[in-house]
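Whether sequence alone determines local backbone shape is best considered at the level of individual chains. Part of our work consisted of pairing the sequence of a single chain with a tokenised description of its backbone. This step matters because it turns folding into a mapping between discrete strings. For completeness, the protein is quoted in full, as a sequence line and a line of structure tokens:

_____
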Amino acid sequence: MSETFRADELRQATLAAWASSPTRFREDANAEDDLRYGGYRDRLFVELAQNAADAAGAGGILRVILAGDELRVANTGAPLDAEGVAALASLRASAKRSGGVGQFGVGFAAVLAVSTEPSVRSAAGGVRFSAADTLAEVRAIPELAAELAERENTVPVLRLPWAVGPEPLPPGFDTEVRLPLLSDVDGQSLLDQLAGQAEDLLLALPGLSRIEVEDQVWTRVDRPDGVAELSTPTGPSRWALHRESGQLGEEVLAGLGVEARRRTGWSVCWAVRLDESGTPCPAGSDVLYAPTPTDERLSLPARLFAGLPIEPSRRRLAPSPAADAVLRAAADCYPQLLLALPPASRTALVPLPEFPLSEVDEKLRELVLTALTNAEWLVAADKAVLSPRQACLLDVAAPELVELLGPSLGGLLPAELAGAEHLRALQAVGVRRIRLPEVVATVAGVDRAPEWWHRLYTALAPVAEVDSTAREELGALPVPLVDGRTVTGPRGVLLPEVADDILTAMSTVDIGLRVVHPAAKHRLLERLGAKSVGAAELLEELRPAVERSVEDLEAGLDTAALTDVVLRLVELAGLRRGEAPWLAALALPDEHGDPRRADELLLPTSPLREVLAQDSPLGVLAADVAERWAPGLLTAIGVLDSFPIIVDESPTGPDHDLPDEQEWWDEVAAAHPAGEGPRQIVAVGDLDLVAAEAWPVALRLIAADPLAWQALRLRDGHTAWWLSRFALIGGRPPRDWRRADVDELNGLYEVVPAEGLSDELLALLGVRDSVEVSDVDDAIDVLARLADPDRLVREGVVLRAHEALADAVSEGRVDPAEVEPPAAVRSLAGTVVATERALVLDGPWWLAVLDPAEVVAGGDAPALADLLDLPTSDGDEVVSAGRVQPWAELDGVVETCDLLGLDYPDGDLHVHEELVVLVDETRHTVPWWLDPDGELHTTEDPQGLARALAWTLDRWDDRHLLAALLADPTAPTLLR
């Protein structure tokens, strides 16, 4: 009777084959050595776990314990049978022809690394293998003696099985492998090695769900969502898995061996570890599992377990059409693994461009990238599932931007995928990136509400804030305007800082302003070139509309909205009268409803209405407009409550519509060294509209108006110039009067009838407080007053008046050619004398021979004579004889000069006993004289000598003091 599982028949057949062919013995021995020391080295637990998974099919349990020096590996599932024993005793034949994980019965050879006496037990019996018993059998065959000697008595262990009887198995298990360990094998190290492989074995072998190593336990639970939950001694772990299987076609199996061709089924499993949040942890550098670890290095983010043809060494993939087919199938199902992950985590499993780690890695990476490029696994912002070819991604990681552009850009991915951690992956699978220029082009034609644009600007602002290139690319970004238009590019668009209702009102004003809609205002627009403006700047933008508003109103256009906007902006800007003169062009209705410029209208309550002439061209503002707006706003735009103020900071000519402006301008230019006109104009306007009888009231209005007062005080300003000549006080210009407290002008000018006007105002108006000749008109007036015989003019006033006239000529203020010579003049005696009898005094010595009633004196004699067209005193000759004597030798000269702290004169003079001069053939005795040659003559009399000394020392005003000192050159005389 045969042994269990026909073990004896297997032994006899093998021994017979060896006896008949020692070469066969040698081949079997060498093959087992190859397996023992090559392909199955270090694969003990992998091969035993693989056999256990095949036996269980699903839900299998593997238990490993150390019983003394024996390692015992038990598993659940199909028990050992005769076919299995035949496979164990074969080097190439396999009992797993219908798609089991194992491919070669030779996998059991891995046990030889730790034991030469292995056995496999089941409830129905078992078999054992023994190196010692096999050696005994071989020695009994003479034909093998030579081979045995050649091999130094080493024999193949796993070719001759011996049956063993049934023995009790661990409860719940169906098969147990027992391995008495070699003396040099550390059992605990083997257990530690298995513990390190347990997690990978549970993933690689779907037939196993539990591994026990002594008291350590690993389990796997497969969830319906493709996630496998592993429980391990070190804690739980989770893996996303995707498994697929199928059948290989005959065309790809042709290159395989007979046994391999019978296994037409294939299976693959992709696995990636997940962290606690469900985010994948890419594998990085790994190996191919076929389905147990090979030496084929991979760099894919997920681990691949696949039933692939491999070399007998189980280290490398066996190149073949079948292997390529399985790899393609694995790549094709790779996107399904991504679908088991959260959408934001899927890019972590995209292979990134880098150097492949092996030929298999290179091939598989290309296949996977191709599959990912074509498969639909990306979740768009609108929740549609797309392939990378269908998807696009914004460069800007802004969720709101994605929401806004989604309807316009089909296939737009969520903003979170624009982060750096996703970009390389999306680029690797060909996702199109939408850069800012394309964003701008996309929104250029869309019709959206201003609020939508504001949201768009908010989404774009962060990138524009830090990236100058982005700001350039956004330069053509559309901007909605308050008037309903949408313009291209923010540059030049206005961003008003005013109330929205004002902007709404502006939308009705047809002036083409590029004012952003209030609902779309955003700081991004300013960053891109829009101009932030306040009320004052916005007013300036309205200037063209204001300047043509009268024409528009006369043409029948409604300018009410413009008026409303302008006045509200003026209020916001806080403008005051005269600060924006161009606002005076704003069209407003007068009391008759006719359009007028603002500066052509008076407030109904304006005090100017009392002082203007009846024929004044100014109108009165319509009452309803005056009632609606505050007077301060109306005057700020030019409506008149008082006299208008004309301001020009850089005038270029007399073109300000001021009365007699050209004449004033010319006078200012004539007084300037370079002939330049005024550098600034601040002037009171409409002065020529005042009624003659209303000037006192008008002047008080000017004095009460701060701006008018400022204009009046301006040096060389038009206002003071004009008022002094044309305003009327008591029916005469202000310059025709003198102030009441100025007695020195008594007789020359009358006291001004003040009528409540202040002294300062009178001074600014030109009311005189001294004799002053500023122009030709002044010169003519003063000469006329001096020649008036009805005026009682004191001699001192006459002298000062003539001096002022002479100075005006000398300093160029008066051209004598422009003055008609008077018929009469005022003499030194205070009398009026006809000009044919008068002459101008050329020096004080002449008074000794001339009649004061015929002499005119004061100031520079040649200048005065030129103005009056009078001769100067001349035609003299000294006829008496005198001696030439130094000043120092004259009595009292040195002492007098010493008392006054003066240096006595150098040089000589002519001293006469009696000094006689001949004038007009008449001899005159005089005390001192300066002859036409400049020689000084005097008598020894203190009076003559004192005048000569005063003239020489240029101390003419001290001549009387000098006379006293020369008579008595003592300190008491000086101090008396």
